[in-house]
Design goal:
Strand content: 15-25%
Radius of gyration: 22 Å
Strand order of the largest sheet: 3-2-1-4-5-6
CATH topology of the domain at 4-130 and 295-321: Rossmann fold
CATH class of the domain at 4-130 and 295-321: Alpha Beta
Number of strands: 16
Largest sheet: 6 strands, parallel
Shape: globular
Structural class: alpha/beta
Oligomer: single chain
């Protein structure tokens, strides 16, 4: 592809960031012809003639040879991406929720139409984790991918542990700086990380797992007692997403706060940055670090996908076509920290064993081993209770 004519959907933080990055690098091979927006009355930083509120002005334009989808409505994004692919037009997407729920279908559509869908920007902001998994870690030596995948929640936790802010104050600051939305649910409850983990797993182990089948718990219930406990133990709380190989053809995955010791790479990942640790059998651990929130970092990642299309790059999904077919399992146990208020809350959790326990009038916690499958079964009830849980690994 010698020149790219872009039809852009969305002109929010990332969409505008992409246009600013394109102007900064002055890439003559890629030009934005039309931008589809929801509200045509809103003032914009680019000439009015660039904008439209009619998707057909992009999707029905034969001169547009790349659709870039950067809107926050997952359902609308799905229809845009699907229609473009059906028309044989390659797509760059940044909507991780849409991809997490529809990736299996969209992979099949790519193969049927012989067209590319790229989405590195959906997973870790400026960190090119997907392309690295596709090109460098494209074999069965991979053991795990773990890390901080959400810059907004990490910013909040950094302010709590480094500047002694309360949770609410740190959240407000993240919202004021544009790192968190006015409704921060996806970020602080772990769903943003979950969606990214689902996408990463497709490239790490070649298997799609529906997000509704997985355990997710965020940081919104982190309390003063949990923070004090972490400080006394010399650890920090980080929201960690992980997919880990358990055997020759099995893996497990979940998103949970985790008690992180100083010797871990992600202990020092602060503010809106993301950090991903990739572990393999022969190459040990490799660490990737970069900004995970903001228009310019994510816009730069989108630009990388656009540049890749200049060379006709597409994902090959090598693990999906490999000799080993990996499957997800929740038949495993791990060490869990549970802070609870009432004994009936504790009774909800079927601990296999308890190794540490403390209770007083105002603060109660236990640490013990629990099966992931048991937590998945009660995950909706956990969300309703006055409890906080975190993975508490020994190493």
């Amino acid at each position: 592809m010698s020149k790219i004519t872009i039809g852009l959907f969305g002109f929010g933080v990332v969409g505008e960031g992409l246009c600013n990055v394109l102007a900064k690098v002055q890439m003559k091979e890629a030009v934005v012809k039309k931008i589809c927006i929801r509200d045509g009355r809103k003032p914009r930083s680019l000439p009015r003639e660039l904008f439209t509120d009619r998707p057909g002005d992009i999707l029905d334009d034969p001169s547009i040879n790349l659709v870039v989808e950067l809107i926050d409505d997952a359902e609308a994004a799905y229809h845009v991406v699907r229609r473009a692919l059906e028309n044989g037009v390659p797509v760059v997407s940044g909507n991780k929720k849409m991809l997490a729920y529809h990736l299996e279908e969209l992979i099949a559509l790519q193969e049927a139409r012989g067209v590319a869908l790229l989405y590195d920007a959906s997973a870790c902001g400026s960190i090119p984790v997907i392309r690295n998994l596709e090109e460098y870690y494209d074999n069965d030596l991979l053991i795990s991918v773990k890390g901080i995948l959400n810059g907004s929640s990490n910013f909040i936790l950094s302010k709590i542990f480094n500047e002694n802010m309360e949770y609410g104050e740190a959240l407000r600051m993240a919202q004021e700086l544009g790192f968190a939305e006015s409704d921060p649910t996806f970020d602080v409850e772990g769903y943003d990380s979950l969606f990214k983990l689902v996408i990463i797993t497709v490239h790490a182990f070649g298997t799609y797992v529906h997000p509704d089948d997985l355990l997710t718990f965020g940081i919104s219930k982190l309390g003063a007692d949990d923070i004090r406990y972490a400080r006394e133990k010399g650890v920090r709380v980080k929201l960690v997403a992980q997919v880990v190989k358990l055997g020759p053809d099995k893996f497990t995955m979940f998103v949970l706060p985790q008690l992180i010791t100083r010797d871990k790479y992600i202990y020092s990942v602060e503010d809106e940055f993301n950090g991903v640790v990739i572990k393999g059998e022969c190459y040990g651990k490799q660490f990737m670090f970069g900004k995970g929130a903001g228009g310019y970092p994510t816009g730069s990642s989108v630009l990388s996908d656009i540049t890749a299309r200049l060379h006709d790059y597409r994902y090959e999904y090598k693990k999906r076509h490999g000799a080993t077919r990996f499957s997800y399992t929740d038949d495993c146990s791990f060490r869990l920290y549970l802070r609870y208020a009432r004994e009936e809350d504790l009774a909800l959790f079927p601990f296999e064993s308890i190794t540490e326990r403390y209770w007083s009038d105002n603060y109660k916690y236990v640490i013990g081993h629990v099966r992931l499958a048991d937590l998945v079964k009660i995950k909706e009830e956990i969300a309703r209770r006055d409890v906080f849980i975190a993975a508490a690994p020994l190493n």
